[in-house]
Amino acid sequence: MQFDEFIENSVSIILKYQESSGAYPACPYFPNYQYSWFRDGSFIADSMSRVNQIESAEKFFKWCSDIIVKRKDNILSGELLDARYTYDGNEVGNDWGNFQLDGFGTFLCALKAHENRHNRSIEQYREASGLVQFYLAKHWQEPCFDWWEESKGIHAATLTCIHAGLESFKHPDAAKVKMAIKPDAERTDASLLICGILGSVTEDEFSSILLEIEEKLVSKDGGVYRYTKDTYYGGGEWPVLAAMLGLYYSKIGRTDEARQKLDWIKSLANNDGWLPEQSNANMLHPGEYFQWIDKWGKSANPLLWSHAMAISLALDI
Ligand code: BGC
């Protein structure tokens, strides 16, 4: 398969920054993101698997697997796991909301998809994937932090990732999780796009949520916000979410609109070809921007998850 220059650039950025341990830094230069998340990393590994970067994806799966197996006793005794780790696989140890289940579901999905796509044995991750299934089946009904690590609750986006992960390994509890997924009962949040993408709700059920996202969370330039009250770095538009909207458009045959999302993402690349976590061209709450600059410096760039989602969208189109 031939990949275009845009994809090649994103792949080389991800490869450049992947740690020798297999960890994918969320962002190599933003101090608070110099860790590896199960969520970001699983999406990144999935896109790397899609572009035949088998070794890179498997190095990440191994990194995850070592973390899980090392905590076997904790998992079996009902303890909770963190969502992000240092590059060498240790807990980060700060008080930032850390109990999140979605990334473990996404890890299972990425692993299974990789096995099917490349006909690779995933035997070496069998113990880890079994432990993750046990962990998710045990804790899925407990409130955990959302994708944005801000609010604790039972979130449809999280349940969708858990469901998809359990389902891909044919775990008997997958059906129960699916029954609990109720995206229309939640605030309009672009993370809900994953429910449409992974099909945890039907296209019909998802149509009203899609309309709300389009009405409330798409900027005049086509970027996508997380949710209307987002004040993080002023509440800008996220390439990850524009890519997800594009992936959903592509899934339902609205290919031109999918292409527009990709074009918007491409327009954000800086001279080094980096894609940021967010664009601050059309902030929802510009008055909040500078307090974040004062607190944490410039926002994350490059964000490896942005590159990963852009790769997946470009391939889909
Ligand atoms: C986002 C998370 C993400 C993390 C690292 C946070 O600001 O809310 O979804 O996993 O950054 O990219």
Please provide a brief summary of the model:
This protein has 317 residues and is mostly helical.
Could you describe the 3D structure shown?
The protein has 14 helices and four strands. It is mainly alpha-helical and 317 residues long. The chain has a single domain, classed as Glycosyltransferase (Alpha/alpha barrel), CATH 1.50.10. The strands form two sheets. Strands 1-2 form a two-stranded antiparallel sheet. A two-stranded antiparallel sheet has the order 3-4. Strand 3 and strand 4 (152-153) form a beta hairpin. Helix 2 runs parallel beside helix 14 (304-316). The two termini are 14 Å apart. The structure holds beta-D-glucopyranose. Beta-D-glucopyranose is lined by residues 26, 33, 37, 39-40, 147-149, 303, 305.
